[in-house]
Fold this sequence. Notes:
Elements: E1 2-4, E2 12-24, E3 27-39, E4 43-47, H1 53-60, E5 64-69, H2 75-78, H3 81-88, E6 92-94, H4 99-105, E7 113-114, E8 120-123, E9 126-132, E10 141-145, E11 150-154, E12 157-158, E13 161-162, H5 172-183, E14 191-194, E15 200-201, H6 202-205, H7 209-215
Parallel strand pairs: 4-5, 5-6, 6-7, 11-14
Antiparallel strand pairs: 1-2, 2-3, 3-4, 8-9, 9-10, 10-11, 12-13, 14-15
Helix pairs in contact: 1-3
Amino acid sequence: MTQQPTSGGTARIDHGVTTGTFELDGGVWEVDNNVWVLGDDQECVVLDAPHDATTIMKVVGDRKVTAILLTHAHSDHVDAVFDLQERTGAPIHLHPLGRPLWDLVHPGRDWDEELSDGQTIEVAGVTLHVLHTPGHAPGACCFHVPELGVVFTGDTLFEGGPGATGRSHSDFGTIVDSITERLLTLPEDTVVHTGHGSDTTIGAEKPHRQEWLDRGH
């Protein structure tokens, strides 16, 4: 587990990595997923629930989890969500357009709360702003925390560009529009905490938008 220094009072970001598989369209891929936990010494929220609730709980520790916030419903981001909920009692939050992918992983079961664009969620004295960013998945959401100068992007934006759009329920033009309109408008020094791999910044990715567009044709 690593700890990210922040400037939001007592709020901090803790990080871990889980390993498992991503399954869609008949394929199975080995993947490492980032686990992000935002909070203080008493309470926190968990962003995504990939693969292994035991590993996630090592990042959480003995804190109260007030919400499990899902960036989208691909299997590698939600496969441990009910195990995590059983251990924490926290409500599961997902955008309603996540339903088709969610049902592939958890048929016949529901999440608890619906995310919506512009919604705000409070924890440890800071505010997460929900940004609906479809493209990688219809219900994909990012979580901007202005007080800390960070945005959690799931699989919408990575170091080097947009998330993958070659599988069901994804669209390249839509993800580029989402990134352009919702993410590249954030301050350039905003740190991007991704669903897989290394951090980046809005400023580092912004100059490459035309390259992404060219790559998509």
